[in-house]
Amino acid sequence: MEKIYAGARLRQLRRDRGLSQVALARSLDVSPSYVSQLEHDTRPLTVPVLLRLTETFGLDAEFFAPQDTVRLVADVREVFADAAVADTLSAGELDELTANLPGVARALVGLHRRYREATENLAAITGGRDPERVAGPMPHEEIRDYFYQRQNYVAELDEPAERLAVELRLRPGEVRPALVAALADRHGVEVTTRGIEPGSDQHRYEPDRRVLHLAPTLRPGQAAFRLASQLALLEVGEVIDRLVASWAFGSGTARRLARIGLANYFAGALVLPYRTFLGVAERYRYDIARICDHFGVGFETVCHRLSTLQRRNARGVPFSFVRVDRAGNISKRQSATGFHFSRVGGSCPLWVIYEAFGSPGRVLTQIAELPDGKKYFWIARTVSRTTGGHGDPGKTFVVGLGCELPHARRLVYSDGLALGEEARVTPIGMGCRVCERPACPQRAFPLLGRPLRVDENSSTTLPYPPAG
Fold first, then answer.
1. What is the CATH number of the domain that holds 217?
2. Do 30 and 154 reside in the same domain of the chain?
3. What total number of domains does the chain contain?
C-alpha cells in the first residue's frame, strides 16, 4: 500500500469536530505524540489507524486523499480525453503520472488549455469573424480559475472584512444604514436612490462627485451588497490591486473583472462576517432557508458564502458551488472540494441541478458518484429574478451546493436518508465527451477513443454502444 501522509486533512477533521489531540488519540487508541506526528506528516497513516478513523467518524478512506491531487487527476484525464490528443495512456498511468510528477502534470494541463484556446481562435478567424475580436482565454473563465485555485477562500480580504464588520457594529436587519453611514463618515460618499432608471443599472458610482446611486428596486440584501462592494474598493483597494497583480491575467478586461470579483468577495465577507456566519450555519445545520431569514439575504448569496468557509482552524463544510441556466450553461462555479467542473462537453444530464428546473422553489437532494468512485451529496434549488416590468424577460437559474459524502451528516438535508453502503447513489460524469461510463443511457456523445458497436441485425437501449 502506498504511504498516505494526510496531516492537513487529519488536523482539519479534528478541528472541525472540536477535538484536542489528546481526545483524538483516546478515540483512536494511540498516543497524543503519535497524533502530533501524523498531523505534521512525519509519520504516514497506517491501515489500522485509517480503519479506525473511517469507522469512528463515518468517513470514506478517500477523505484523506490530497485535495489538489484529486483536482489535478481530473484535469489530466480531461486532457487525454481530447480526441486531438488521443487516448494513449490508461487511467492508472495518468494517476501515477499525477502522483509522481505533479509539476509535469500541471504543465501538460496548461499546454492543453493554451492549445484549445489557439484552436478556438483559429476556428473563429477562419469562420469569418473579425480577428481583432478574437481573444485568448475568456476573462470570466480566468476569474473562475483564480478563485478555483484558491479553493474559493481569500484570507487577505476575508479577515479584514470581518474586523471591519465588528468595527462598524453590523447587525442583521441593520446593515444598510450602517454601511451608508460608513461610506459617508469614512470616505465622504453620498448614497442616493435617484438618478437610475428602472430596469437599467443596479448601481453607479461617480468618483469625482463621490456619489453612489442605487437602483430603488434593489431588495435590502442586494442594496447592502452593493454598498459593501463599493466600500471594499475604498477600504482595501490596495490589497485588491496586489492580489490582481499576483496572478497572470491575460488582459486588462480580466484584471478589471478580477477587481470587481475580489470587491464582491469582500462585500460578502463584510455583510456575512466569517465566524458569525459559520456559527449560525452550524447552529442551523446548514439549513439555508433559516440562514437566509437570520441575515435577510437571498438563497444564492448564502450558498455562495457557504462555499468560502475554509479558514484555517475554523473550517465549515467544504462545498462546491454552481449556478446553471436552463440551457446547461454554468455561469458560476467555485469549489472548496476536489469536485471537478469540466471544460469539455458540458455537464451530466443526470446531475440533480437539471432536475431542479422541474420543481421550482423546492430543494432537491442527490448522492452522486463520479467515475473514480468518489461520492458527493448535492442540494439544488431554483432562484428567479425579475429585471423589469410586465412582459420583460426574467432570469431563472438553479443553484447547487455539494460536499463530499462524509460531510453530509452535518446537513439538515440528509436527515432520513441512507448515507452508508445502502445509500441510493446516482452515477454521474463530468460531461458526455469525457465521461468514462460507456453504458449510460443518457450519453449525448460517444466515448472518445472507443470504437462503437454498429450492427444492423441488433439494437440496444444505449445511444452509443461500445464495441465489445
1. 1.10.10.2910
2. no
3. 3
Instruction: Out of 97, 120, 136, pick the residue that ends a domain.
Output: 136
Strand locations in 231-363, DSSP E?
310-311, 314-315, 319-324, 330-335
In angstroms, the CA 374 to CA 357 distance is 25
- Of 247, 271, 295, the position where a domain reaches its end is 271
- Residue 180, CB half-sphere, CA atoms under 13 Å: how many? 13
- Joined together, the cell numbers standing for residue 244 give 490582481
Q: Which amino acid is at 319?
A: F
Q: Rounded CA gap, 127 and 134, in Å? A: 11
Q: Write out the residue range of the structural domain in which residue 110 sits.
A: 67-136
As a whole number of Å, the CA-based R_g of the chain is 24
199 and 182 assigned to the same domain? yes
Asked whether residue 449 carries a pLDDT value surpassing 70, the answer given is no
Residue 455, classed as helix, strand or coil, is: coil
Residues near 178 by Cβ (< 8 Å), separated by ≥ 6? 168, 169, 170, 171
Amino acid present at 140: H
The answer to whether residue 294 sits within a structural domain is: no
Largest CA distance in the chain: 81
Closest by Cα among 371, 394, 367 to 382? 394
Query: Which range in 259-263, 325-329, 426-430, 463-467 is most confidently predicted, on average pLDDT?
Result: 259-263
**pLDDT tens figures, 133-158:** 444 567 888 888 888 888 889 999 99
User: Could you report the per-residue pLDDT of 251-300, keeping only the tens digit for each?
Assistant: 899 999 999 999 999 999 999 999 999 999 999 999 999 999 999 999 99
Query: What are 242's three cell numbers?
Result: 496586489
pTM: 0.73
Domain shared by 129 and 155, yes or no: no
d(CA 130, CA 157): 39
Residue 130 has a pLDDT of: 46
* Cell reading at 172: 442583521
Amino acid at 235: E
**44 and 60: one domain?**
yes
Using alpha carbons, select from 320, 308, 349 the residue that is nearest to residue 463.
349
Summarize the confidence of residues 352-374 as an average pLDDT: 91
